[in-house]
Amino acid sequence: MVKIGLQMLANLENITNLIATEGDFRYYLKLKCLNCGDETSWVYIDQEEKSPLKGGRGSANLVIKCKLCSRENSIDIIEGSIQPYNIEDSDNRKFKTIVAFDCRGIEPTDFSPRRGFKASSSESNTVFNDIDLSEEDWADYDSKKNISVGIYELQHRFIKL
């Protein structure tokens, strides 16, 4: 079992608490089989979905069979590991782990941020739902404080925990 963290770095403008929405948020990943090195196309992992492991050894959020070597691999979102990316993280220009995965036989190699994030204005209590980060930039307007808000220069990386 290998624990891998997905880290994020972004330039936040008047926005804080950027987090994946609870429920059926989908993390789109490319995964590499540690047995043969084959890499998948985009697949998603959802905290709400569970699939049984072969041999009745429990379940995981995603169970996938390698197309090349036929090995069954799995990845699980570690409960309680989803964290927000805050304006303080942005101001310090530091990567922060936003979710951790329990990987068995595979490891993530790439992440595609898409829709389903939420955040709040750092200057008011305005909440922005269903933020789409597929372009790796997002902008809007906080009408309560008459300021622009945005997420820019989004970067990510994976680290072993």
Largest sheet: 6 strands, antiparallel
Oligomer: single chain
Number of strands: 14
What is the strand content?
Answer: over 45%
- In DSSP terms (H or I, runs of 4 or more residues), the helix count works out at 1
Let me know the average pLDDT: 96
- With strands numbered from the N-terminus, the spatial order across the biggest sheet is 7-8-9-1-14-13
Structural class: mainly beta
Approximate shape: elongated
In whole angstroms, the N-to-C terminal distance is 11 Å
Helices and strands, in N-to-C order?
Answer: EEEEEEEEHEEEEEE
What is the CA-based Rg, rounded? 17 Å
The parts where pLDDT drops under 50 for at least 5 residues are none
Helix content: under 10%
What order do the helices and strands come in, and which of them pair?
Blueprint: E1 2-13, E2 15-20, E3 26-33, E4 43-46, E5 51-52, E6 59-60, E7 62-65, E8 72-77, H1 87-91, E9 96-104, E10 106-112, E11 115-121, E12 127-132, E13 138-142, E14 147-160
Antiparallel strand pairs: 1-9, 1-14, 2-11, 3-4, 3-10, 5-6, 7-8, 8-9, 11-12, 13-14
Which terms summarize this structure?
six-stranded antiparallel β-sheet; three-stranded antiparallel β-sheet; 161 residues; mainly beta; single chain
Describe the protein in words.
With 161 residues, the chain is mainly β. Helices cover 3% and strands 57% of the residues. The protein contains 1 helix and 14 strands; from the N terminus they run E-E-E-E-E-E-E-E-H-E-E-E-E-E-E. It has one helix at 87-91, and strands at 2-13, 15-20, 26-33, 43-46, 51-52, 59-60, 62-65, 72-77, 96-104, 106-112, 115-121, 127-132, 138-142, 147-160. The strands form 4 sheets. A 6-stranded antiparallel β-sheet has the order 7-8-9-1-14-13. Strand 5 (51-52) and strand 6 (59-60) form a beta hairpin. The radius of gyration is 17 Å and the shape is elongated. The mean pLDDT is 96.
